[in-house]
């Protein structure tokens, strides 16, 4: 025989869930796959629903906010599970417990003192993923008198990589005034690399390559003679990245000595010609230290070496 009370109860619970979802808004910056959700059948007078949509894949140590809602139901005379005309206040409290199989959940316990029936209560907890690859699960259970309801969220925890780009052009370099009066420099400094998380620790390691070239356009007087760069300066090298991931990314990029080819300039006029330049050489090693938000970002770094000064534009973003 069909249990109509059970049918109506599920209909009411479904409507309550829709109300909870419709009264909560969540910005969607990037489309991500939501964490798989497991829930126990609603058999008591309490229900838990997950309001936010945390990602299913998370990095080592990543922090994820999870918002959830809780509601209790009551008998108010007449048919069981019919909503009362006004919220009633029960004598018992709601207790909620949250835990993670491998990671960390804060806070791990919530209380709702003297809750009203048929009223939605919302809470937020923070899940911190473990620093080890594998599956993890967050369980949220709510207890009211002898009834309980639980929701489980599954996460795929993995080692994540970051990409780093460090770049500059002639606009970012302070050239000597006398040289800039005769030559319009054109240059590119481009360093591209990757670094990744270490398992069981908060360290970061990686490497990359760097390429640099410098050309120049003569803009001095041409009545008597003219000059041109016949072989622009170019070089390449590598760099290593080390760092620590806590609430931010603290990074140290160590650039090795860069090998440069020759730079040659030729001039002609006034009845003659000549050339000169810089022979093949090796640039000095150097290092830069900077801090980024945990999820990546951009910043400008004022790099000085010797008498030169250059603004490096740094970009760091997650790759996976």
Please tell me about this protein's structure.
The structure is a single chain. This protein is mostly beta strands and 320 residues long. The chain has helices at residues 4-22, 177-182; strands at 37-39, 46-50, 57-59, 63-72, 94-100, 104-106, 109-112, 121-128, 134-144, 147-158, 161-169, 183-197, 203-218, 225-231, 233-245, 248-255, 258-260, 263-269, 272-278, 281-283, 286-293, 297-305, 308-318. The protein has 2 domains: 7-158, Immunoglobulin-like; 161-318. The chain contains 2 helices and 23 strands. Strands 11, 12, 13, 15, 16, 17, 20, 21, 22 and 23 form a 10-stranded antiparallel sheet that branches. Strands 1, 3, 5, 7, 9 and 10 form a 6-stranded mixed sheet that branches. It has a 4-stranded antiparallel sheet with strand order 2-4-8-6, covered by helices on one side. The chain is rod-shaped, with a radius of gyration of 32 Å. It starts with a helix and ends with a strand.
- In percent, how much strand structure appears in the residues? over 45%
**Rounded average pLDDT:** 81
Shape: rod-shaped
Structural class, judged by helices and strands? mainly beta
Helix/strand order: HEEEEEEEEEEEHEEEEEEEEEEEE
